[in-house]
TrEMBL record:
Gene3D superfamilies linked: Glycosidases
PANTHER family: 6-PHOSPHO-BETA-GLUCOSIDASE ASCB-RELATED, GLYCOSYL HYDROLASE
Protein's UniProt name: Glycoside hydrolase family 1 protein
Any GO MF annotation of the entry: hydrolase activity
Family to which this protein belongs: Belongs to the glycosyl hydrolase 1 family.
Keyword annotations of the record: Glycosidase, Hydrolase
Pfam annotation, one family: Glyco_hydro_1
Keyword field contains Hydrolase: yes
Organism domain of life: Bacteria
Active-site residue list: 381 (nucleophile)
Length: 483
């Protein structure tokens, strides 16, 4: 048993990290437009790196340049998309996961009428993908909600966000339904707790000493919004599939000491809870008990739980970059990861940013998730950030990236052979883009190199790295040839 014939091979990008054009054609400011360049994140910063204040937001609104806000310029996908899509097609992509910038459609999140220029842009992108036989997988909210919904309502803490989102989603389904069959609601919904502003527009200082309460309330509103959007998606687009998405933070105990095992177990339970709610349609009892113990009281409308149960996700999408380790010993060395920290695992190597490289962990994750949920799975992000060197002749040799992917794909293949129902894989990211956590350009993920430095200088020329040719061959062989 190997990959299915129609396996969706491809790559994943997000609007706020590629598009640029942050203030063109009627787009409103999004939370991503005020994320500043932070190349030297410390490990502590990883535990709460998106701390934002009202003053920082005011300063960013005042500064209408892109200089310290690299996501505003992205890689100018807004103007380069035909060329980028042609390169994806050349690699043989069957799919492209991309997101819609909500503030391109509803600049402040609450307009009566959507922004036609924003709709037209995505329609053109979808037409281009169709021309190349690339199936889009579209995330409705990937760290780019309208900034106005954050400053006006403190983001998703306010229940009115549900209507704003459902309305936006409906406009997308109506306009793009004929091009898009696969949808995703929220990118890495679990990350609200790790970076409340980026994911949910929550400004911590506006929550007093009740930030945690605000986080769980915001999450509840997102679950309900996701369920309502799922309902609309199914009604408006026949044969559509709506997925939910998790950051898979597979956690190991540092030793077999029961205290370590318990910590790792709880960490995994808390990670899975977000998928439990969206796939099984209910809050898990242990999770509810934990909320109660923390003094969290969720405000719900009478029908909320029924809505969650009635409109569950069709498939589970997840990102996987690294595994993490928990220890009860506070003296252990800590390392960073994807907006998390953890104890350093002596058996694993790390990227330059301290994310621990663990291909077997991907197989463990696949087995665990499929056994738990028994719905089709898709890996929608996996990759490594690295600094690349352009040789004098223009070539870019990136054996480290090829190794990373080869080892992860090989474990993914084993998981499929062990019976996991996996229908696709989209690498993060097929083209260099702006990093979420540090806003660096130099933290490169792509098979395609983009000539842009951290300070924004560069021609934006696209070039093929060695990994481009390698991935092309992987896709052509439907994952059989990883060498
Ligand atoms: C994922 C996000 O969690 O991590 C992406 O969904 C992000 O948007 C990716 O780019 C890698 O993180 P970073 O900080 O290296 O860009």
């Amino acid at each position: 048993m190997s990959f299915r014939e129609d396996f969706l091979w491809g790559g994943a990008i997000a609007a706020n990290q590629v598009e640029g054009a942050w203030n063109l054609d009627g787009k409103g400011m999004s939370v991503a437009d005020i994320a500043s360049f932070k190349p030297n994140l410390s490990i502590e910063d990883y535990a709460g790196h998106n701390t934002i204040t009202n003053q920082m937001i005011a300063d960013a609104i005042e500064d209408q340049t892109t200089s310290i806000y690299p996501k505003r310029r992205g890689i100018d996908f807004y103007h380069h998309y035909p060329e980028d899509i042609a390169l994806f097609a050349e690699m043989g992509f069957k799919t492209l996961r991309l997101s819609i910038a909500w503030s391109r459609i509803f600049p402040n999140g609450e307009e009566e009428v959507p922004n036609e220029k924003g709709l037209a842009f995505y329609e053109n992108v979808f037409k281009e993908l169709k021309k190349c036989n690339i199936e889009p997988i579209v995330t409705l909210s990937h760290y780019e909600m309208p900034l106005a919904l954050s400053t006006k309502y403190n983001g998703w803490v306010d229940r009115r966000l549900i209507d704003c989102f459902v309305n936006y989603a409906k406009v997308c389904f109506e306009r793009f339904g004929k091009y898009v069959k696969y949808w995703l609601t929220f990118n890495e919904i679990d990350s609200v707790g790790r970076h409340p502003f980026t994911t949910a527009g929550i400004i911590p200082e506006n929550c007093g000493d009740r930030l945690e309460q605000a986080v769980y309330q915001a999450l509840h509103h997102q679950y309900v919004a996701a369920a309502l959007a799922t309902k609309d998606c199914h009604e408006l687009i026949p044969g559509s599939q709506m997925g939910c998405m998790l950051t898979k933070l597979t956690t190991y105990p540092n030793t077999c000491h029961p205290a370590d095992v318990e910590l790792a177990l709880l960490s995994n339970l808390n990670n899975h809870a977000h998928a439990d709610i969206q796939i099984c349609g209910e809050y898990p009892p242990l999770y509810q008990a934990q909320l109660k113990a923390k003094g969290i009281q969720l405000t719900m409308e009478p029908d909320d739980l029924k809505i969650l149960k009635a409109h569950t996700a069709d498939y589970l999408a997840f990102s996987y970059y690294m595994s993490r380790t928990e220890s009860a010993d506070p003296e252990k060395e800590i390392t960073s990861g994807n907006t998390v920290t953890g104890v350093k695992n002596p058996y694993l190597e790390s990227t330059e940013w301290g994310w621990q490289i663990d291909p077997v962990g991907l197989r463990v994750s696949l087995l665990e998730l499929y056994d738990r949920y028994r719905v089709p799975l898709i890996i929608v992000e996996n990759g490594m950030g690295a600094k690349d060197t352009v040789e004098e002749d223009g070539s870019i040799h990136d054996p480290y990236r090829i190794n990373y992917f080869r080892e992860h794909l090989s474990e993914m293949k084993k998981a499929v052979e062990m019976g996991v129902d996996l229908f696709g894989y989209t690498s993060w990211a097929p083209i260099d883009l702006i990093s979420v956590s540090t806003s660096q350009m130099s933290k490169r993920y792509g098979f395609i190199y983009v000539d842009q430095e951290d300070d924004g200088s560069g021609s934006l020329k696209r070039s093929k790295k060695d990994s481009f040719y390698w991935y092309k061959q992987v896709i052509a062989s439907n994952g059989e040839d990883l060498e």
